[in-house]
Amino acid sequence: MPRLLQRAARRRQSPRSAGQSHLTGVLVGALALLAGSAALGLVANHFSPRGIPLLPATTGDGEEAPALALPAGLSGIGLEEAKQAFDDQSALFLDARAPEEYEEAHLPGALNLPAYEFDDYFFDLMDPIEEASRIVVYCHGGECSDSIAVAERLVEFGFSEVYVFEGGWRSWLESEGATAEGTGP
Amino acid sequence: MKRLASIVSHPVVGTVCRLLVGGIFIYTGYPKLLRPDDFARLVHGYRILHVDMVNLVGITMPWMELVAGVFLVIGIIPRSSALVIAGMLAVFIGAGFLALMRGLEIECGCFFPFMGGHELGWDLLVRDAVMLLLALQVLVWPSSFLPRRRRAAM
Predict the structure, then answer these.
(1) A140: nearest CB among B66, B106, B139
(2) ipTM for this model
(3) Where are the domains of chain A?
(4) What pTM does this model have?
(5) Could you say which residues from 6 to 65 on chain B have a Cβ atom under 8 Å away from some Cβ of chain A?
């Protein structure tokens, strides 16, 4: 074997070069995994009934706009409408946040129906929910999904006048709306 | 110190780390891929990505979590899977840290939906950091309790 080839073969067998090729293999594997699963996600999203567009439909003014429109079948209300409903007492407010957050502060009169413990709380709140002519659900703010999750469950149960307060608790606080504390409404 | 290293690098520890981290990523990734709209909304809540990127991340990231988790559990390219998971955990920790430093009160989107994810807090970052250490264990000392063929291919 020519000397140059022998030297190249020796270099290939050296531990340092083996380690480098091993590391390259791990990196290539990781990149392939990322690319493959991303492609899988795009294909699945294309065929899924719950698929979403690649570019979100914003409300127009950029960063503060919600990432996505509400799911089909759900309606949202803004701060002004929520305040109106609160002042008129024309809606039952449901707080979809965790119980400890509700206890800390909530909209006066709102009932706590945590998204994460929906089944544990819902049946105790059946009567006031059934009596309400209109239901407004809120959570932390524009991007939180707890209010949507609760509203979707209520719609599944046959309630039709269900609205998501899109600005949520944050916009209520920013507008210096009234608050209450404790475990009760 | 040597004793600690021998414990950390033990195949049993490696196997436990691999199954635990992989299992958690399957458990958290699967519900997210069923609801890409909700997950995209949560991603947007971190206020890091431009709004045009949010849906792309909402669509692809849950699949990356799930595939990397499945690969890690069954032992297909375990070190590459551990590297992907470690990278994602580092991103979660960085994004969470930035959100907390900016005083954002958002849902973490870690366990989702209806799994007690709740609001982003320092405790969740600590949990992610622990998981990152477990993923690094697999990356550095891949478990030897793998099918022989795969072990040879690592």
Answers:
(1) B106
(2) 0.84
(3) 3-47, 62-174
(4) 0.61
(5) 33-38, 40-45, 47, 51-52, 54-56, 58-64
